[in-house]
Specification:
With about 450 residues, the chain is of the alpha+beta class. It is about 45% helix and about 15% strand. It has 18 helices and eleven strands. The strands form three sheets. It has a six-stranded mixed β-sheet with strand order 5-4-8-7-6-9. Strands 1-3-2 form a three-stranded mixed β-sheet. β2 and β3 form a beta hairpin. α2 packs across α3, α4 packs across α5 and α9 crosses α14. It is globular, with a radius of gyration of 24 Å.
């Protein structure tokens, strides 16, 4: 029998780090204030129900208390048994199963992972057949490589964190100079954002401060981490030389983000600020988009952040960046669901829109979207307009400040894309789903000229 575990000091430390009083913490965990007080005073041990609540809201803290492997097992099992295809179990029963039958729990987790992988392969095949797309383009191959890697690159992330700790308060311009590289401003209107000639990094003079810092960090990363980047590219299996070059650039970008927003410090700040992106951007001197992207990479084993999805959408609805650590997956071909609030955000720059949505598999998500404009610097050239979206499953709403703006009792039904969405009652449908038949009735006129059967 497992020994009773008293963890009052650790539990209190979690609450203090999250800047919660006992009443707020008790509400978050679904406990009474008196019961939480007894737990923090070591008058009561952790139970399966409390462990389940910690796994949902503070998975990293549970790993510190119970050990990384049991905590990861509980979090993964909770996700697997939350699948709509499985009858739901009470959280305490899930925790008990993970604790008492770990081998069985691991098999259930593996089965769920295999199911998810099979679903993704089928969806990918359906999309490719529908769109008539053959071999992946280099850009798509690199984007898929990052997705398959979980958007977390451990050796680069840890190297960047060590770099940030060693640099301390040293200005990033001085860090670049330490590599023998000088800085110069390019004032020509047609100048690229950055140009490196081997000795001088030329930056466009119109760049905002956060973009300037990021491009300097990118150049430092390309120089300081040249060996690990080359090793990762060599092991990537990407056959096209352009794809390998794009991957090297992407890895340097990844490292730059990790240098400016080092893992542990950024993750702790994100938890304390309830993932308020504007506040995180100010604290770390980054752009709104950079902070969003970094939040989607916090998947270090044993110290995971909240699983987020992140994407960037342009005015035409094209998804130009995408990653998901959640169960939500993006369509590779065609547009995204028109009911998704990110499309509205593109047209309303500098305003944050929040949505509580439910996908056809029954999973609910809370997401924020913000329209951004990057000026072109002159009237004759249109500015770049796009929106970024960041979301998590509704189970994490208490740790996501934007969830305070929505009613969690109701959700907007959305899909992945019209070609993959099975909903039969959507007024916004652009195409019928590829795996369903349709009925056309000449004497009945609906929003679309067919019914999905």
């Amino acid at each position: 029998m497992k020994a009773r575990l008293y963890a009052g000091a650790q539990l209190r430390a979690v609450r203090v780090a999250a800047q919660l009083n006992q009443r707020a913490m008790a509400a978050r965990l679904g406990l009474s204030v008196s019961y939480l007080s007894q737990l923090e005073s070591d008058e009561r041990p952790l139970t399966a129900a409390v462990s389940a609540a910690l796994a949902q809201h503070f998975p990293a803290a549970l790993a510190d208390i119970e050990g990384a492997a049991p905590a990861r097992r509980l979090v993964a099992l909770r996700e697997a048994l939350a699948d709509p295809a499985v009858a739901p179990l009470p959280p305490e029963d899930v925790a008990q199963l993970a604790e008492e039958r770990p081998a069985l729990a691991d098999r259930l987790i593996a089965l769920h992972a295999a199911k998810r992988a099979a679903e993704e392969r089928v969806a990918l095949a359906e999309e490719a057949l529908t769109a008539g797309v053959g071999a992946r383009l280099p850009w798509e191959a690199v984007r898929d490589w990052f997705h398959e890697a979980g958007n977390y690159i451990d050796p680069l992330d840890r190297a960047a964190e060590r770099w940030a700790q060693a640099q301390g308060a040293t200005a990033i311009e001085d860090a670049l100079a330490a590599h023998g590289v000088a800085l110069a401003a390019e004032s020509r209107e047609d100048a690229p954002l950055a140009r490196f000639d081997g000795r001088v990094l030329h930056l466009n003079a119109a760049l905002p401060p956060e973009s300037r810092r990021f491009l300097i960090a990118h150049r430092i990363a390309a120089l300081a981490f040249a060996t690990p980047i080359a090793e990762i590219v060599a092991a990537s299996g990407l056959p096209h030389p352009e794809a390998r070059r794009l991957l090297a650039i992407g890895l340097a970008n990844y490292a730059a983000g990790a240098m400016l927003m080092p893992y542990q410090a950024f993750r702790e700040a994100a938890r304390a600020l309830r993932h308020d992106i504007d506040r995180l951007s100010r604290r770390f001197g980054t752009s709104f988009e950079q902070a969003c992207h970094r939040l989607s990479t916090l998947q270090r084993p044993g110290a995971e952040g909240i699983p987020f999805y992140f994407c960037r959408v342009d005015m035409a609805g094209n998804i130009t960046k995408r990653h998901s650590a959640t169960r939500l997956q993006f369509a590779r071909f065609g547009g995204a669901c028109p009911l998704w609030h990110v499309h509205e955000a593109v047209a309303i720059p500098d305003r944050i829109l929040v949505q509580h949505a439910e996908t056809p598999d029954g999973v609910r998500y809370v997401s924020m979207a913000k329209g951004l404009v990057k000026p072109s610097g002159r009237f004759a050239r249109a500015p770049r307009r796009y929106a970024v979206a960041l979301g998590c499953e509704a189970a994490h709403a208490g740790d996501f400040v934007y969830a305070d703006a929505v009613d969690l009792r109701a959700a907007t039904p959305i899909g992945i894309s019209c070609r993959l969405c099975p909903r039969s009652d959507c007024d916004q449908r652009a195409f019928p789903p590829t795996d369903r038949t349709i009925a056309v009735e000449a004497d009945v006129r609906g929003v679309v000229p067919y019914r999905v059967i």
